[in-house]
Amino acid sequence: MRAALVLAILLAGCKTEVVVSQPALERELAAAFEARRLESAAARTIRFRDGLLREAVDPARIDRPARAEAGRRALADLRAAVADLHRGRLGGEARVDADLLAFLLDRSEEEIRLADGDEVRWDALARPAGAAAPLARPGILVRGDLPLLASADAFSLPASPGDRPSTAAEARAAAGRLRQAAELLKRRGDQASVLYGSEGEGARAASRSSADRLEAEAKRLADEAPKLPGEGEGFGPALGTERFASILRFQHGLEESPADLEAFGLSLLEETERALADLAEAHFPGLTWRQAMEKVRDDHAAAPDLPAEARAAAEAARDFCIERGLVTIPPEARVGHVDLVGDEMAKSYPFAAYSFRLATPEGESGRYLVSPGATWMDAAQKEERLRGNCRAWTRIVAAHEMWPGHHLQIFVADRECSLLRREAWTPVFVEGWGLYCEWLLERHGFLAAPADRLAVLVMRAWRACRVVLDVRLHTGKCTPEQAVDFLVERAATTRESALAEVKRWMTSPGQPLSYAVGFREILALRASEEERLGARFDERAFHDRLLRCGPIPFRFVRRIFEVSAGP
Fold first, then answer.
1. Mean pLDDT, the chain, as a whole number?
2. How far is CA 525 from CA 408, 452, 555, in A?
3. Where are the domains of the chain?
């Protein structure tokens, strides 16, 4: 009866007679109800990750442990909400989203666990801030707090060299805690003066003196941070095997071990080197593929011309994709412009990057950043940077960053994908799509010249090296200096570019391997769809469907395709 009443309301004013069986209607209503509950749980989870979780893992907060405890309680409530969903009532993709939401909660819990493991180190770096933590509790200052406020010893700075930051990130975290502690001492000192007369005024004077010392130390640390490994000239520290494996599982949704991925990277590298040797023999007689690549690098734009050439390359790739019907590129997604990486970014981005889109009179524009040099470079460094961004290389990078690569990919995700799928993103999908686009354009003849094909394969070797070295660097199997040598030798990378690459890899563990691993996953999914559909396989439909999945771990992407395929 209730279902019939709901149907009558929904169809009020409709002139078309609709006949729906009672059981079918009840199933549809139940599915819609569960979908709304899933949507609500996902919205709560995203708010949690944007708010409380950020506080629970922020090393610069003196109340981080308390926020972490609150975060664990919130996670328990969210898990209960997800467990209470009736998955059997959800539609196919909604069931996948329910499992994706559970995965996102696992990721959040792991982030808190790792932050808890770092707390001893963070506390040691800003011990005076830890002493001030009791003053951060909610409520009004009590008389029993006055001895702590008045204690100079409690807020003395550490003298042990072991308690000094070793990286830029540690220095910034310690500076943040010290600044918070100083602000807290001032605020509580003012309360003491108001509430407890002369006794409180004495505590206020002492707390002000302590706060001044902490602020001075915070400033010193903040000034020191840009000179430390991670931001300065040196390399950042290795992550460690346990944490690296955690990234693979909880950020990327991969079940493979670091050793498995290293073996995959080596296999891809050897396969690509064989293809490079064959190409050099066929099209660059008398030269090895490394010598051929050096010759290809001689053809590069001058620095003032590189942005315009990069834009022209991106637009040519866009128009080729539209003409061949390789993927849908809506008219409003066809606007793009080129900018330069800044001086600091140029230290770790030797080629290009995709940045935030900008609104323009023509529409929302993709922002493709090129890297022709920097003010801190001498003439030789600038020339080597331009050789690294030769014309063949730029044609490939432009497609990777813009069309049909990241600009189109992010444009579709923002419009076609739920907040949940965007929140659960992984670079394995994002960068895997970029590398797949390079392969796609070569396959269809856009990158047909021998120099272009050589550059495509060299790039693939470079991405294979990234898998190997990402694992080796962060599991302690090689040093950054050895990684630079490996890149120069096995991927024919310029030494200047290799140094910039490895420096960035040390601060972004798990990201370098994402290109080749994601490419592998897309090729495997495509092969599965081609086998399933046979002559009915539509390349454009496959690409459109893939992008609409959102940048989520591939184990969920595969399930979405299975649901779409039907029984």
1. 93
2. 20, 26, 10
3. 22-125, 127-234, 243-565
